[in-house]
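quick one
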Amino acid sequence: MDVDDHHHPSSSIMNSLGLLMTMMMKKKKNIRVFDLTALALLCVCFLYVFLSSPSSNDNPFLFTLRKYSQRHPTIKYNVSTNRDELEEVLANTSMANKSLIIAMVNKAYVEGEKSMLDLFLDSLWLGENTRALKDHLLIVAVDQTSYERCKFLGLHCYKLETDGVDFVGEKMFMSPDFVKMMWRRTLFLRDVLKRGYNFIFTDTDVMWLRNPFSRLILNETFDLQINTDKFNGNERPRANLINTGFFMIRSNNKTIALFNTWYSRKDNSSGKKEQDVLQAIIKEPVFTSLGLNVRFLDTLYFSGFCEDSRDGRAVITVHANCCQSISAKVADLRAVIREWKRFKRESANESLAFGPTNHVECRNSWRSHVIEGRLWL
Ligand SMILES: *[C@@H]1O[C@H](CO)[C@@H](O)[C@H](O)[C@H]1NC(C)=O
Ligand SMILES: *[C@@H]1O[C@H](CO)[C@@H](O)[C@H](O)[C@H]1NC(C)=O
Ligand SMILES: *[C@@H]1O[C@H](CO)[C@@H](O)[C@H](O)[C@H]1NC(C)=O
Ligand SMILES: *[C@@H]1O[C@H](CO)[C@@H](O)[C@H](O)[C@H]1NC(C)=O
Ligand SMILES: *[C@@H]1O[C@H](CO)[C@@H](O)[C@H](O)[C@H]1NC(C)=O
Ligand SMILES: *[C@@H]1O[C@H](CO)[C@@H](O)[C@H](O)[C@H]1NC(C)=O
Ligand SMILES: *[C@@H]1O[C@H](CO)[C@@H](O)[C@H](O)[C@H]1NC(C)=O
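structure w/ 2-acetamido-2-deoxy-beta-D-glucopyranose:
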């Protein structure tokens, strides 16, 4: 049930309170008596509101109480069962059809002369029909610094807490914390699906040069539409090499089942990152039995450094995949943004190809013996 459709007895209470106040104003002589009466009535109303409607959140009274009871866990009233902070922020961020865009950041992605998050926002600013998407973007911050940065930028932010793990620093690739963080992401996204939200998940090292909704299929045909590192020329075969850095997923039983299967492999997949685990599942019979309709996205539109789009007129996103470090990604993505600006200026020129900008830093990042580590591929 949609909480917003819920009609609530409190409005009549508020009206009664308003009436009472009016009475008080009129009868100034008896104000002391009315003071007490008002106070008593207020208490009764308050309790009534509190006890009668544990499912609604529209009410400012309830909201305050809930906050209070969260800070004071000894208070037993369980008003928050149906709508917690995540639910609120999802409702706040999503479009009318319960769809939104989700990106995750940690400290390493919000810091630096030009941070990855800044670049991502630049792309939304410079892209075609992408500016309005910012209102439907939820930034999931895994540490305090990135959360504060997100708030500062005036975005929709959610702080993802994880017990016993420090997600602050740049994570060494495949280190225990890196792996934990990736699985935490999978768990979080499953939670969002379970709450009935469809979403595009995007890494912040994906530049949105055009509005992806223009190329994604928005009806119910596909449960999952996912980026590929290399596109084998056909949207259906499961042999495509997926990349979990950008995908659109609908919330339904099948996709939730997929995430359950995926997450259940967490403790039985040592040495594999979650993307490889998903790739493996897609090739297994269990995947067929889930009955999901998957579309693998063509790198002509949803491109990356592994396989550049060959056409600047078609390109929608550019992902800094096939790259080892944050600094290399930032350097090469800045070149993409420069190239995109030039393309927009000169787009009258039919022969212009938005093409491999060489990705020098990223290519060199593989040569380095010291892998700087990164949040995710
Ligand atoms: C409050 O809600 C939580 C989550 O739904 C539940 O586990 C818990 O038992 C509830 N507590 C009370 C006192 O009803
Ligand atoms: C919801 O959005 C409004 C306006 O954008 C903001 O003032 C409010 O704090 C948001 N609530 C949550 C829980 O994010
Ligand atoms: C949701 O609605 C918005 C307009 O409100 C539309 O642009 C978008 O494509 C829709 N998304 C889906 C998945 O239907
Ligand atoms: C869904 O949309 C695609 C492309 O927009 C169209 O080809 C297809 O027929 C649609 N499917 C349904 C069931 O409406
Ligand atoms: C999804 O699962 C729920 C509960 O298990 C069930 O009531 C519902 O009918 C299912 N929906 C579909 C589309 O299979
Ligand atoms: C772990 O995976 C192996 C093969 O990949 C399988 O044989 C085994 O049953 C799995 N164990 C659990 C606990 O799922
Ligand atoms: C079109 O672009 C190509 C390659 O950048 C350039 O050599 C050519 O002079 C341009 N043509 C015009 C008419 O601007």
